[in-house]
Amino acid sequence: MQAGTPTAGHAALVIDTNIVLDLWVFEDPAAATLRVQLGQSDMPWYATQAMRDELQRVLDYPAIALWLARALRKPQDVLAQWDAHTTLVAAALEAPWRCKDADDQKFIDLAVQQRALLLSKDKAVLCLAKRLQASGVRIARTLDDATSIAASALPQSVSAGFH
Known about the structure:
It is a single chain. The protein is mainly α. 50% of the residues lie in helices and 10% in strands. The strands form 2 sheets. Strands 1-4-3 form a 3-stranded parallel β-sheet. It comes from Comamonas flocculans.
């Protein structure tokens, strides 16, 4: 985990907890492109301490702990991956758009502040996609989905990070 000062308008990612679980707990094939890109791209993944705290809490859920145990992994392994890929920033100011799921609001707030690509599968987040688009935020379920969004809607500097 790197400490950083985000730069408004800089191409960036914000990734919600469910996608993180797909990456390093469930190893979902739909997250394979993202796993590769995180290792190769210089596009920053911004996160806050509250996001890390949420991940740590979720990793302790019995069903997740069982999944990790079956894969011979520990919560610390997932947190280490998260720490290695994220740039930790201060919590964002509240965005004018409210999410029905209060736990997801921090992801929306940070994505709006950074004008970032927000990766999420959460229905409460996805239903805000059109409203957030006007503020420069794109929401996608996977990086593959984001590629088509980037190619058609994001600035060239962002879409270049997906190839």
